[in-house]
Amino acid sequence: MKKLGVNVDHIATLRQARKGRFPDPVIAAGICEIAGCDSIVCHLREDRRHIQDRDVFALKNTVRRLNLEMATSEEIVRIALDICPAQVTLVPEKRQELTTEGGLDVSGNIEKLKDIVKKFRDKNIEVSMFVEPDIEQIEASKEAGACAVELHTGRYAEFFEKDDEDAWKNELGKIVKASEFGISKGLKVHAGHGLDYRNILPILKIPQIEEFNIGYSIICKSVFVGLHSAVKEMVDIIKNSEKP
Ligand code: PXP
User: Fold this and answer.
1) Whole-model pTM?
2) How far is it between the farthest Cα atoms of the chain?
3) In the chain, what are the domain boundaries?
4) Ligand 1 atom nearest to 193, measured from its CA
5) 3-239, what's its fold?
6) How many angstroms does the Cα of residue 45 sit away from the middle of ligand 1?
7) Ligand 1 pocket mutation, candidates 3, 4, 7, criterion most atoms within 8 A of CB
8) Could you read off the pLDDT of 34-60 as tens digits, one per residue?
């Protein structure tokens, strides 16, 4: 069964514009669950530009399944171990970026990542690596002890947006190969970044991908149609794609 994780960072971004209490990502998460999503995703960034520590603790105590996106810095690892979410997704993080750029260099940091993964696995926390659709990075993720990889669909989404069909189909081919390779290694395969209501359709045809983590497009749509409707529309697209 294909699953949808909704990223609620953008709700917190709006709240932080006034540094007040509203809109609350915890309330948003509840609405996302009522609309049928399978997990809630949030990213506690080192600069705390959107999600705050108290949000992650509150989300952990409220939602059915929390997937915490996180950098591999000592401070964030310590907090994540304390929160103990069902899943963590390890991502690269740069202070200046608008959003996560590129996948994690797992092969270049394998020893450090092995240690971090072990800490999470010892607490029964599932670990997913956010990587480029690249065989070397997927192989390294397996070696580091991850149980899943999240394939970075950002480049694919950019080409799709520009209507550059050759380029997006080329990226799609990489995602297909990476998905097949991930499954052959015994990893779960997830996908995320830049996915929206249109560009997800070709990605949904890849049978190996079981989880989609989506934020921006859903929250943007929710401004006009409401959060429940925006999430439900994506849930229906994903779940209906499996019907014969
Ligand atoms: N997956 C990961 C690992 C991410 O870093 C992000 C962005 O926070 C997403 C998924 C969601 O991306 P978007 O907001 O573009 O849907």
Assistant:
1) 0.97
2) 48
3) 3-239
4) 12
5) TIM Barrel (3.20.20)
6) 12
7) 7
8) 999 999 999 999 999 999 999 999 999
